[in-house]
Amino acid sequence: MTLSQSVARPPMIMIVAALGPKLGIGYQGAMPWRLKQEIKYFKNVTTNSPADKINAVIMGRKTWESIPAKFRPLPNRLNIILSRSYNNTFDENQGIFYYNDLNQFIKDLNTGKYELPKPIHRFFIIGGAQLYNTLIDQVNDLLITQVENDQDCKIDTWLDWNLSNWNQQPTEKLSHFINQGDTNIQVNNDFIQEGDFKYKYAYYTRN
C-alpha cells in the first residue's frame, strides 16, 4: 500500500492514541481504553475543515469492522476502507470508498473518476497497525494522543515507529495545525485524567 510521491494528493496525516513508552495501540483487535474526551478530540480534528472542503479518513478493513455499525460511516467525512479483497468501488449514498490500493484511489481521484461533494482538505490515517506501520514513511505530520497508565494495561499491538526521526512541536503549533478549519479546537499541555489513564495531545513533524 505504498503511495507514489509523484501522485498529487491533499496532505496526509496520521492520528492515533498510543500508550507509552512502546506506543501500544490495541489488545485483541480493540482499543485498550475508552476515553470520552479523546474520542471528541478525534472527531473534531478529523472533521474540521474549511466550509468549502471535506476531510477523508483512511482505515483498514479490521478497523472499519471494529466501529459499531450505528456509527458507520464516520459522519461528515469521506470514509476510505482499504483491503486486498476489495474491487475498488464507491458507495455514493454513504460516501464510502472500498479500495485494495491507496495509490490507485489517489489516481482515480486525480483523473476525475468521482464527483465528490467537496474537494478533500486532508487525509487522516486512523488505523489499524498495518496501515500505520506501512504508511509512516509517506506522511510528514503525526497527531499522537500520548497515553499513560500506572496499572497493568494489556497490549498486544504496537506501532513500529522510531520517533527519534521526528520533532515534537509546542502546543501552540499543535493548536494552529488542527484549527485550519471552521472549528476552534482547544488544546493545552496539561494531562487529562479518565479512569486509570491520563493523556495529552501531541504534534510531531518529520526531521
From TrEMBL:
One of its GO terms (cellular component) is mitochondrion. Pathway: Cofactor biosynthesis; tetrahydrofolate biosynthesis; 5,6,7,8-tetrahydrofolate from 7,8-dihydrofolate: step 1/1. PROSITE patterns: DHFR_1, DHFR_2. Pfam families: DHFR_1 (PF00186). InterPro entries: DHFR, DHFR-like_dom_sf, DHFR_CS, DHFR_dom. Keywords: NADP, One-carbon metabolism, Oxidoreductase. GO terms for molecular function: dihydrofolate reductase activity; mRNA binding; NADP binding. GO terms for biological process: dihydrofolate metabolic process; folic acid metabolic process; one-carbon metabolic process; tetrahydrofolate biosynthetic process. Residues 12-206 form the DHFR domain. The keyword Disulfide bond does not apply. Its EC number is 1.5.1.3. It is an enzyme of class 1 (oxidoreductase). PANTHER family: DIHYDROFOLATE REDUCTASE (PTHR48069:SF3). Belongs to the dihydrofolate reductase family. This is Dihydrofolate reductase. The lineage of its organism: Eukaryota, Fungi, Dikarya, Ascomycota, Saccharomycotina.
